[in-house]
Structure formats: structure tokens, C-alpha cells
Amino acid sequence: MKQLIERAIHVRFDGRSEELTAMQLNLANTASDAQIKHAVASHFDLPQSYLDDHVVVHTSTAIIVRPEAIYG
Predict the structure, then answer these.
(1) What sign does the dihedral 14-36-44-61 (CA atoms) show?
(2) Does the pLDDT value for residue 50 go beyond 80?
(3) Domain boundaries in the chain?
(4) pLDDT tens digits, residue range 5-35?
(5) Which of 35, 51, 67, 68 is deepest in the core (most CB within 10 A)?
């Protein structure tokens, strides 16, 4: 049985900010960024390509899925 990560997953898209858990998305601690985006898109019934321009940031306590920041 795969182990589920305990960190919260913060998701930002379309002006929304949502907080999920890895257990809600059935994600293992070895989930790749692509797997995380796929699980988030599925959770919100979005097309898989919808989060292509988002980045996944890993911290010690959370995973953040957010639009890529454009500077300048």
C-alpha cells in the first residue's frame, strides 16, 4: 500500500485559493509534479492541460500549485 504524504496542498487558479490534502487526492509521497497537477485537475474537473502553466512548489509543510510568476 502506498504511503500518503501528510502535507497540505494549496492550489491557486482562476482567482481561487483552495486547500486540499494528499489523502483527498490519493497521492503518494513519491508523487511527481505532473502527478500532482493531474490529481488537482481531476479533483476540480478541469482539463488535464489546464494547469500546464502552473508550477509546483514543495516546502517542508506544504505543496503549492500556483500560476508561474512573471516578473518585469
Answers:
(1) negative
(2) yes
(3) 8-67
(4) 567 999 999 999 999 998 899 998 889 999 9
(5) 51
AA letter at 50: Y
Average pLDDT of the chain is 89
Q: What is the pLDDT of residue 28?
A: 86
The full length of the chain comes to 72
Measured CA to CA, the distance from residue 36 to residue 31 in angstroms comes to 6
Tell me the C-alpha distance between 70 and 61, whole Å. 25
Cell of 18: 483552495
Neighbours of 7 (CB within 10 A): 17
Largest CA-CA distance found in the chain, in angstroms, rounded = 46
Contact 54, 66 (CB under 8 A): yes
